Amino acid sequence: MGSSRRILGTLGLLSCLTLSASPASSAPAPKELPRVTFTERYQAVQHGGLVRASNSAIGCRKEQSPEAEPCAEVKRGAAGVNGDFEMFYSEVDVDPDTYNSTRAELKVPQGAKVSYARLYWGGNLRVGEQKPPQDNGRVLVAEPGGAYKEVLADTVIGHRTDAGSDAYQASADVTPLVRKGGAGMWTVSQLNVAMGHSEVGAWGGWTLVVAYEHPKEPVRRISLWDGFEVLAARAGDGIVEVEGLDAPPGAAGKVGLVGYDGDRGVLGDSLTVTSDSGRRVVIGDAENPFNDVMNSTVAEFGDHSFVRQPEHINNLGYDADVFDLSPALSGGARSLNFRFTGESQGHFLGVLFVQTDARR
Question: Tell me, what's the pLDDT at 18?
Answer without folding.
Answer: 28
